[in-house]
Amino acid sequence: MKCKVIAITGQIGSGKSAVGKYLQQQGYSVLDCDQISRLVADMPCVQQNVAALLGEQSVVDGKLNRPLIRKIIFADDSLYSRYNQIFFDQIKQEITTAVCRLSAQGCRVVFVEIPLIDAFYYPWDAIWMVQSEVFTRISRVTQRDGVDKSDVLAVSSKQNYQTAPTHTLINDGTLHDLYAKVDDLVKQIL
């Protein structure tokens, strides 16, 4: 039996990680593309490609120099696109491998937290879009990550969505409110 694969997406600070963590606490399998991306970033072939694109200073002591990379790619749309493409194919492969493994283990549904739903094609069974007002998202991220409002807006400006969601979760209330909405959607799919 093929398991369902459901994307959880939304702009930075919208609450997609809160949804993912809640689903995980409920016993569901959740893949986090941010975590997958960090694993991919440690791959020597990826680091070599990043250094070739952005310069040797973008990789320091076997790790990506994320602050420098952010400054470079957010200032240049072409570099932003080319940088992300280094990761997308590998991330898609990691998702596919994990879904196949979980499906073989009898998993009925796998959720995937993915900030950039349009990064690559994937045959999602559903797409859940988590949305919040911009001032709410800015407040969450500046408090959580200790970054400036301009940093949050720079990331948000790159998170434009062409793909229409199958379900939208408005997350401007409490976590309890959000979890109740998630529970309702889970009942619909199972």
Structure description:
By secondary structure, this protein is α/β, with parallel strands linked by helices. The protein has one domain: P-loop containing nucleotide triphosphate hydrolases (Rossmann fold, 3-Layer(aba) Sandwich), CATH 3.40.50. The protein is built from eight helices and seven strands, in the order βαβααββααββααβα. The chain has helices spanning 16-25, 33-41, 44-54, 66-73, 77-104, 134-145, 149-157, 175-189; strands spanning 4-9, 29-32, 59-60, 63-64, 109-113, 126-131, 167-170. A five-stranded parallel β-sheet has the order 2-5-1-6-7, sandwiched between helices. α3 packs antiparallel against α5. 27% of the residues are buried. The mean pLDDT is 91.
List the main descriptive attributes of the protein structure presented here.
alpha/beta, 190 residues, 5-stranded parallel β-sheet, single chain
Number of domains: 1
Strand order of the largest sheet: 2-5-1-6-7
CATH hierarchy: architecture: 3-Layer(aba) Sandwich
Give the CATH superfamily: P-loop containing nucleotide triphosphate hydrolases
State Rg: 17 Å
The helix/strand class is alpha/beta
Shape: globular
Largest sheet: 5 strands, parallel
Number of helices: 8
What average pLDDT do the residues reach? 91
Query: Tell me, what is the CATH class?
Result: Alpha Beta
User: What share of residues is helical?
Assistant: 40-55%
Stated plainly, the CATH topology is called Rossmann fold
Number of strands: 7
